[in-house]
């Protein structure tokens, strides 16, 4: 199969208009050879002599086709618009590749592995999410409580502001001792020549 795959690889990229008649015949002969190899029925005597779990002859042929890249070429021939003339040959080869498998087994096998992988991925994601939530909770507990910069507003009774109202003081109570009416105002600049020596 390795030599067949190499010949097909060399011929398949060519445009169908550039192919010689010999190239077309060679492609058809290679596809028929692969079909005939896969069409050989299994020998029950040889299958019984093998160890349980050992790959059958058919499985080993399929593995050789896979290693040689023939399965990729078959997919290309089946899907390429310009290679429609080989569609029946490719369809027959594919049906022979899956001849020992029932559709129910193939569907269940695909769902079983996908379901198991999906379940495993879901469990792994859930454990990661739980770990992340635990880390977030631990960080929130370690963080000191945030102190507000707003110290509150206080009314100073007995100290009048403009308009006969009580003064509203916006600083913390610890700053109350240093309160003056000039608090927060920009100090008046004294010109340099008038400053005290």
Automatic annotation (TrEMBL):
KW Nucleus (keyword) present: yes
Domain of life: Eukaryota
Domain Timeless N-terminal: 14-155
Molecular function (Gene Ontology), one example: DNA binding
A GO CC term attached to the entry: replication fork protection complex
Record keywords, A-Z: Cell cycle, Nucleus
Annotated compartments: Nucleus
GO biological process: DNA repair; DNA replication checkpoint signaling; replication fork arrest
Main location: nucleus
Record carries keyword Transferase: no
Protein name: TIM protein
Gene symbol of the encoding locus: Timeless_1
């Amino acid at each position: 199969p390795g030599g067949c795959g190499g010949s097909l690889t060399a011929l398949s990229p060519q445009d169908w208009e550039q192919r010689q008649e010999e190239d077309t015949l060679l492609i058809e002969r290679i596809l028929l050879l692969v079909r005939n190899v896969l069409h050989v029925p299994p020998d029950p005597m040889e299958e019984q002599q093998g160890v349980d779990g050992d790959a059958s002859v058919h499985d080993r042929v399929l593995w050789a086709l896979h290693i040689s890249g023939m399965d990729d070429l078959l997919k290309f021939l089946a899907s390429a618009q310009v290679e429609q003339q080989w569609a029946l040959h490719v369809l027959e080869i594919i049906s022979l590749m899956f001849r020992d498998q029932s559709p129910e087994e193939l569907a269940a096998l695909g769902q079983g592995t996908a379901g198991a992988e999906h379940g495993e991925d879901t469990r792994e994601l859930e454990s990661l999410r739980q770990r992340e939530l635990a880390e977030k909770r631990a960080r929130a507990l370690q963080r000191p409580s945030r102190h507000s910069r707003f110290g509150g507003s206080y009314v100073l009774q007995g100290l009048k502001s403009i308009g006969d109202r009580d003064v509203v003081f916006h600083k913390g109570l610890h700053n109350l001792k240093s309160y003056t009416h000039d608090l927060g105002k920009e100090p008046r600049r004294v010109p340099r020549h008038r400053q005290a020596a």
